[in-house]
Design brief:
Helix 3 packs across helix 8. This protein folds into two domains: 2-146, Ribonuclease III domain (Ribonuclease iii, N-terminal Endonuclease Domain, Chain A), CATH 1.10.1520; 152-220, Double Stranded RNA Binding Domain. By secondary structure, the protein is mostly helical. The N and C termini lie far apart (59 Å). It contains eleven helices and three strands.
């Protein structure tokens, strides 16, 4: 089973003893996986952060942190470990075997992190990152399919930049109503295309988004 596990990770260990240690629970012996888990935890955080940073350029730091926390928590690690059938390769003490340690979420999650750490120690960051990307492929795909669509201002700006056109300019046309219930009207101008589209909203930001959506429809429809 360990050979199949190595294939699932996409890594052939130069130092097989690291592979063995990563799969060894402390109940089995002194050469257990806790130090490798320590390294794997840090590497996993870094790799997932980098994947999210590159994959979701429109998301703010707070949302990226939330997504990362969901991807590296015990629940997700346990689910991935089960998909790899990692439990059948664990080396557990007799007591842990009898108590079902091979199915315990905490043990499986820790062992998967230890494997990532072992790959890092064995072959460096790029190899560990490749293994993590391989194991996490379906999880990242799920995040991408559930990711919110780009907001109108971002979509318009990226559309213009892709055509080497200047970014649009926004200006307030009018503000109506009392301070607690105002209505804004904003114009979005794209001078290079001769477009001046307006939008309204209960805040300047909302009005700018509405104006950008209108400008994008005019620009993309040409």
């Amino acid at each position: 089973m360990r050979a199949e596990l190595g294939e699932s990770l996409g890594h052939v260990f130069r130092h097989p003893e690291l592979f063995r240690q990563a799969l060894t629970h402390r109940s089995f012996g002194a050469e257990h996986n806790e130090r490798l888990e320590f390294i794997g935890d840090a590497v996993l955080d870094c790799v997932i952060a980098l994947m999210l940073y590159r994959g979701f350029p429109q998301l703010p730091e707070g949302e990226l942190s939330r997504l990362r926390a969901n991807l590296v928590n015990q629940e997700t690690l346990h689910r991935l470990a089960v998909s790899l059938d990692l439990g059948s390769s664990l080396r557990l003490g007799e007591g842990e075997v009898k108590s079902g340690g091979a199915f315990r979420p905490s043990i499986l999650a820790d062992a998967l992190e230890a494997l990532f750490g072992a790959i890092f120690v064995d072959a460096g960051f790029d190899s560990a990152a490749a293994a993590i990307a391989r194991v996490y492929a379906s999880e990242i795909a799920s995040v991408q399919s559930a990711a919110p669509a780009k907001d109108p201002k971002t979509r318009l700006q990226e559309w213009l930049q892709a055509r080497r056109l200047p970014v649009p300019e926004y200006a307030i046309v009018s503000v109506q109503g009392e301070a607690h219930q105002q209505s804004f009207e904003v114009v979005c101008r794209i001078g290079s295309l001769g477009i001046a589209a307006t939008g309204k909203g209960v805040s300047r930001r909302a009005a700018e988004q509405a104006a950008a959506a209108s400008a994008y429809e005019h620009a993309a429809g040409r």
